[in-house]
Design goal:
With about 325 residues, the protein is mainly alpha-helical. The chain contains 15 helices and two strands.
Length: about 325
């Protein structure tokens, strides 16, 4: 269903072997008055997501409400709650959730305008007001000193994601789709080398937050050139240290490089399939992985694993 697009964006999924980000919307800080989410609230949110994915919107809504009360402010979960309410005919509640989505920094304007899940509330004047706020978030994420480079990076990311969705839809068993994805990766990697040689790491200030995320994604998918990925790591580290990059992105790239070197990953972001089951690749000091994940703004391994299983199941039609 359409809100899966939002969940994939928020969860940084859709990679052939390690589930890296699709066009992720950078998260805004939660409101200062929001409590830190409790473990119980996160579990309730996970249960609500599973119910909503199964079309059980009436059952999901009370859990979404409890998760909110417990401090959950994840954009994707709030958006899913809005969709569930809209599909259940709870228009006022759907609009309340959409207000919360806008507060959280949601910026997928075009998706929100077209998502059929929200059809029941789209003509309400309150929807238009929320959409204006989302558009403002969108504009903020795209503010850039180099708009031409920003637009090029976003086009490259879109091409990357179209190819990955096509390959993923066939469970990466379609040779033509896999070769198309590989060719795009090779082309994008070559262009990223040129960009980094010309301007250094594409920072938030230089190309905007969304395009900076795109640059990371393209490097994350440069698996055919691990030496290049390693060259990018200190550049991203410097950007993060200067407030110009994402700690989450750095965690993903760090794990990607470690796994490629045959070493245990640090944050548990990289998965593979063993005996038909999606599982994390080996993790160093696994007992403390959740502490490391929390330090960069990632949820727990248990939550992430469950989310990935649910998303990949939905993508593959439950197979």
């Amino acid at each position: 269903m359409n809100r899966l697009i939002v969940r994939l964006a928020a969860l940084s999924l859709l990679s052939a072997c390690a589930h890296s980000a699709s066009s992720e919307t950078p998260a805004a800080p939660a409101a200062a008055t929001a409590p830190a989410p409790t473990a119980q609230a996160r579990e309730l949110a996970s249960q609500a997501e599973a119910l909503a994915m199964g079309g059980k919107y009436a059952e999901a809504l009370p859990l979404y409400r409890q998760a909110w009360a417990g401090g959950v402010r994840d954009q994707g979960i709030l958006y899913d709650a809005a969709c569930a309410a809209a599909l259940e005919g709870q228009k006022a509640e759907a609009l309340t959730w959409l207000e919360r989505v806008a507060d959280a920094g949601f910026a997928m304007t075009e998706h929100m305008k077209q998502d059929p899940d929200l059809a029941s509330v789209r003509e309400d004047p309150a929807f238009a007001r929320v959409l204006e706020r989302v558009a403002a978030n969108d504009a903020k994420l795209n503010a850039a000193r180099e708009p031409e480079l920003r637009d090029e990076l976003l086009r490259m990311m879109d091409e990357d994601q179209v190819a990955r969705r096509a390959a993923g839809a066939a469970n990466f068993k379609d040779t033509a789709a896999n070769e198309r994805m590989k060719a795009i990766d090779v082309k994008n990697t070559a262009r990223m080398k040129e960009i980094l040689a010309q301007v250094g790491w594409p920072t938030k200030t230089l190309v905007g937050e969304r395009a900076s995320k795109a640059a990371w994604l393209l490097v994350q998918h440069a698996d055919l050139d691990p030496a290049f990925q390693k060259q990018c790591l200190p550049l991203l580290e410097k950007a993060v240290a200067n407030g110009e990059g994402s700690e989450k992105d750095l965690a993903y790239l760090t794990d990607r490089i470690l796994v490629a070197d045959g070493k245990p990953q640090r944050y548990g972001t990289q998965f593979h399939t063993v005996d038909g089951k999606l599982v994390p690749r080996p993790i160093e000091d696994e007992a403390h992985v959740d502490e490391r994940r929390a330090s960069v703004g990632l949820g727990t391994m248990a939550e992430y694993t469950e989310q990935m299983h649910r998303m990949t199941s939905t993508i593959s039609g439950g197979k």
